[in-house]
């Protein structure tokens, strides 16, 4: 019954080469207020609901474009990881779930990395994609993080991560758990190379991802309202058998409890990241020609290289 | 008398009968029950051997959690002399889910850290069933850093269902504490040897098990999530834990094949709790072998070995 919807349609879409930026539905509902927003308006507002300020999920490619100069970057080729080493099957085969996620997103796994410049400064930016199996961290994503962090080391460029993940990919069992120490090795390499590592926590980031590289940044930024935590709210509620307090594990709560440096609206993200990495790399400041800083700044002194 | 697991029911019956017979045996009695006891004992031994010859992953999970199984405190008491416990993370508090301190292993100075589940209601509450809060991991980091400064090896005993999922733990940065602890393991310039003695539960385990050598008891388990947790998420049915346990590859034998652990420490027939002395001796030998292998390595080589070992995981599957 769902075969047509779940398989044939994505397949056809894949064949036609249509990207998911093409909205199936031209109207989008705000998950918080229920307000209906025209897709174009949402897109023009960096996927922040104009009225409520709710930060919607942003496709990895759109995110990278929003950060790099002239919306242009070079994709970092990420290695192929062994597919389904455990021959895992729950109610469905893991390989089927993977296939479906690939068709849905057009990506190989839950990660996209690009290199380019931000206000003239060379930089590597990696985005985790929650739409690909909940952004879960498996061997491919782990290898992708390591490769992209090492690309930053090679380029002597700051590294920025937009984290978003439900945690470890259970279908890879212990091999997904092993991505915690493995990615931590790469974070240490960034640190040894004295390169800034900025983590931007987006909605949601939980589980093993927070228990490794996503909590080891030099600077932690969170998007407003982002859910960030180790254990998911449902697990905690089941354990303690109590309702969780309002705003628990949200970005603002994390800031209050000392886990993130700042909560930054998406409209200010680019400028904030740029400012931070420029200070840490001792690059000259940027003179902005627009106060809301939606894009192109002009360097006081042209950035080197 | 042991507590029996569900799958040990036939064995429980046999051993129960033996105990009963022995209790009523009276040297003055005209009827000799010696022969019958002997026959039953033989049957019980066979039943035990049969049961344990081919434990399913889910059965192993139950053995790994057996209430009588030796815990970290037992290993420390048996293998560590001059044990000097240390307490507190110097930031917030003392977490008894992770115990540890200084001591000697076969006469040589070591720092030891272990997740302790407790063995009765009182101690289980005291140790929070082995589920650590951020303070526990931060204490572990403090101990590891101290050991590193003084150039003494670190031993860790892993036995946790996972890090504690609670409001207070989240509030104080459970994720960050685990991440820092893993990070600290990777930075140590001294040998770090970990033994998974019962349950290696996810991030809560890896935080102190990112080691030069990871050893694992024959019936211990190590996984990214508990079989029950995986069942409720992937199958949407917690009663499918048996299937989840099998699908996830959580046994020492599977993990050795996958290159996750370095060595398996044998257990007596029927599990560690049926012969704690034997398990302790085997564990002592295994730790000793690992320590010897790493004791001559300079700090940079130890860090490189650890880093390369983890980076290599999964690349040749």
Write the layout of secondary structure elements.
The complex is a heterodimer of chains A (305) and B (317).
Chain A: H1 3-16, E1 27-29, E2 36-38, H2 39-44, H3 60-67, E3 74-75, H4 94-105, E4 111-118, E5 121-128, H5 139-155, E6 159-165, H6 173-177, H7 179-192, E7 197-206, E8 219-222, E9 228-229, H8 233-240, H9 251-256, E10 262-263, H10 266-280, E11 286-287, E12 298-299
Parallel strand pairs in A: 5-6, 6-7, 7-8, 7-9, 8-10
Antiparallel strand pairs in A: 1-2, 3-4, 4-5, 11-12
Helix pairs in contact in A: 5-7
Chain B: H1 9-24, H2 34-53, H3 57-64, H4 72-79, E1 80-85, E2 98-105, E3 108-115, H5 121-126, H6 134-150, E4 154-160, H7 167-171, H8 174-187, E5 192-201, H9 202-206, E6 213-217, E7 221-223, H10 227-235, H11 241-248, H12 252-257, E8 263-265, H13 276-295, H14 299-312
Parallel strand pairs in B: 3-4, 4-5, 5-6, 5-7, 6-8
Antiparallel strand pairs in B: 1-2, 2-3
Question: Can you describe what's shown?
Answer:
Chain A has 305 residues and is α/β, with parallel strands linked by helices. Chain A is built from 10 helices and 12 strands. In chain A, the strands form 3 sheets. In chain A, strands 3, 4, 5, 6, 7, 8, 9 and 10 form an 8-stranded mixed beta sheet that branches. Chain A has a two-stranded antiparallel sheet with strand order 1-2. Chain A has a two-stranded antiparallel sheet with strand order 11-12. In chain A, strand 4 and strand 5 (121-128) form a beta hairpin. In chain A, helix 5 runs parallel beside helix 7 (179-192). The N and C termini of chain A lie far apart (57 Å). Chain B has helices at 9-24, 34-53, 57-64, 72-79, 121-126, 134-150, 167-171, 174-187, 202-206, 227-235, 241-248, 252-257, 276-295, 299-312; strands at 80-85, 98-105, 108-115, 154-160, 192-201, 213-217, 221-223, 263-265. Chain B is an alpha/beta fold and 317 residues long. The mean pLDDT of chain B is 95. In chain B, helix 1 (9-24) runs antiparallel to helix 2 (34-53) and helix 3 (57-64) packs across helix 11 (241-248). Chain B is globular. In chain B, strands 1, 2, 3, 4, 5, 6, 7 and 8 form an 8-stranded mixed beta sheet that branches. The interface between A and B is large, with 51 and 50 residues.
